[in-house]
């Protein structure tokens, strides 16, 4: 007697009868029986859909570790030289981060967290919210505790691109896309407008008594103590970022991806001497950070971070972890923090091979624009992080526990740290807000 050969895939009969097998002739497309005593696709698929689904694995736990050897390699250039990690903390602090364990959220938990995050009432901003105290959104310019708003400075007509407080000065300086530079008296709030530059201003930083202004095709500087001034030409396009090292160099990142280098030190009054042009980025250089071990870090709109030797001015490594513009860099202890428009903050640490690897990543629901660090009254570090959703988040480090949130009418592109727990924010509408951490905070 011949038996029909069948596949041994058994399924549940949706009608509650005995188990059956799938018709091998149907699988081959040659079954001519109707009805057939073996299962065809419709019954098979229906039955399989009722099978118990595999259980999801429990949430993993990750630890933000202190620097130690890692096996994963980052994208690097062909250099064998070891990269030293940055040991400069917030304003030179050598404090080491504590070992912290944090649970990775599952997708439902993540969505729930996003919904529960504080949001400002848009109707309250215009004075038209009819719900009053029953409104589920925040009626105010900030939420959280441990800090407060002291006031607002109005005068600029376009977005703020830089805020600085030169040492030894009783004034706070700001620059804007309206091509103006303003000096604000820290005691009275009165404003003095510098002579118009008639040029676009990309950034403003203070180095000692010097106020450095990144402009279109030039860098301008003014000493607020002896009123010495200089202006150096050479950059091709807008200067987006400026930084000096602790030796004798001034670096300027431009919108064409170049980094210009001059020999100069804040303690001198001489005009900077051109040294080199470092060309490796293919997008605007949005942020520069000086690290220990003669290292310079640059972040660009080409989605990369590059590590340079400040002595040889050679590019040593390229970090390729972000998928959109990298807008801000911050050195904290042995770590490098990077913020990007891809909605992520990445924490990088040194590997045994001399490269940097991501050891922690925080994903936001909005792109990252700027980051600065400050310490509270208990000497605990706080990360100030501005996002594209018109907010600034205050995070305790290294846990990334949210301490509070600042709201604004426009994107906040400039954050600056003052003394005594003061910090300043400037938004896309030209408004500057003054904030203070409660307690004896330190910068």
Please provide a written account of the structure:
The protein is mainly beta. 6% of the residues lie in helices and 44% in strands. It has four helices and 31 strands. It has a six-stranded antiparallel beta sheet with strand order 11-12-13-14-15-16, with no helix packed on it. A five-stranded antiparallel beta sheet has the order 5-28-27-26-25, with no helix packed on it. A hairpin with a 2-residue loop joins strand 11 and strand 12. It is globular and about 100 Å long. The N and C termini lie far apart (92 Å). The relative contact order is 0.14. The N terminus is likely disordered.
Side by side, the strands of the main sheet go 11-12-13-14-15-16
N/C terminus separation: 92 Å
Instruction: Tell how many strands the DSSP assignment holds.
Output: 31
Q: What proportion of the residues form beta strands (DSSP E)?
A: 35-45%
Task: Detail the poorly predicted runs.
Answer: 1-20, 42-62, 66-115
Helix content: under 10%
Structural class, by secondary structure, is: mainly beta
**Shape field:** globular
Strand-helix topology:
Elements: E1 10-11, E2 20-21, H1 24-27, H2 41-49, E3 61-64, E4 100-103, H3 107-116, H4 122-125, E5 142-144, E6 147-153, E7 160-164, E8 171-176, E9 181-185, E10 191-193, E11 201-207, E12 210-223, E13 229-244, E14 249-254, E15 258-263, E16 273-279, E17 285-291, E18 295-300, E19 305-309, E20 315-319, E21 326-332, E22 335-340, E23 344-350, E24 356-363, E25 368-375, E26 381-387, E27 391-396, E28 401-407, E29 412-417, E30 422-427, E31 432-437
Antiparallel strand pairs: 1-2, 3-4, 5-28, 6-31, 7-8, 8-9, 9-10, 11-12, 12-13, 13-14, 14-15, 15-16, 17-18, 18-19, 19-20, 21-22, 22-23, 23-24, 25-26, 26-27, 27-28, 29-30, 30-31
């Amino acid at each position: 007697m011949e038996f029909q050969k069948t596949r041994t895939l058994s399924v549940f009969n949706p009608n509650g009868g005995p188990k059956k097998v799938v018709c091998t002739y149907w699988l081959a497309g040659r079954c001519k029986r109707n009805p057939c005593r073996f299962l065809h696709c419709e019954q098979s698929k229906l039955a399989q859909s009722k099978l118990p689904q595999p259980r999801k694995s429990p949430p993993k736990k990750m630890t933000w570790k202190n620097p130690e050897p890692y096996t994963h390699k980052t994208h690097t250039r062909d250099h064998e030289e070891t990269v030293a990690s940055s040991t400069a903390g917030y304003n030179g602090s050598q404090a080491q981060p504590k070992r912290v364990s944090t649970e990775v959220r599952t997708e439902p938990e993540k969505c729930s967290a996003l919904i529960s995050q504080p949001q400002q009432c848009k109707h309250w901003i215009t004075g038209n919210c009819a719900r009053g105290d029953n409104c589920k959104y925040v009626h105010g310019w900030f939420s959280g505790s441990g800090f407060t708003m002291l006031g607002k400075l109005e005068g600029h007509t376009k977005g703020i691109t830089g805020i600085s407080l030169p040492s030894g000065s009783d004034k706070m300086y700001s620059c804007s896309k309206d091509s103006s530079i303003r000096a604000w008296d820290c005691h009275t709030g009165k404003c003095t407008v510098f002579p118009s530059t008639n040029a676009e201003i990309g950034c403003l930083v203070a180095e000692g008594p010097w106020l450095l202004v990144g402009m279109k095709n030039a860098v301008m500087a003014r000493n607020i103590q002896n009123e010495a001034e200089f202006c150096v030409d050479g950059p091709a396009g807008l200067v987006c970022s400026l930084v000096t090292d602790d030796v004798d160099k001034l670096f300027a990142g431009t919108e064409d991806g170049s980094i210009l280098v001059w020999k100069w030190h804040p303690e001198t009054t001489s005009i900077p001497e051109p040294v080199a042009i470092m060309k490796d980025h293919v997008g605007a250089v949005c942020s520069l950070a000086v690290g220990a071990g003669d290292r310079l870090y640059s972040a660009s709109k080409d989605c990369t971070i590059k590590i340079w030797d400040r002595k040889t001015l050679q590019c040593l490594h390229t970090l390729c972890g972000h998928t959109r513009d990298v807008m801000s860099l911050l050195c904290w202890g042995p770590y490098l923090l990077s913020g990007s428009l891809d909605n992520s903050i990445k924490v990088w640490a040194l590997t045994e091979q001399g490269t940097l690897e991501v050891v922690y990543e925080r994903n936001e629901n909005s792109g990252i624009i700027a980051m600065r660090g400050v310490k509270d009254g208990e000497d605990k570090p706080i990360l100030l992080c501005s996002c594209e959703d018109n907010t600034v988040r205050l995070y305790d480090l290294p846990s990334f526990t949210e301490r509070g949130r600042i709201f604004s009418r426009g994107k906040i592109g400039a954050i600056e740290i003052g003394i005594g727990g003061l910090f300043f924010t400037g938004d896309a509408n030209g408004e500057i807000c003054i904030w203070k951490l409660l307690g004896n905070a330190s910068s």
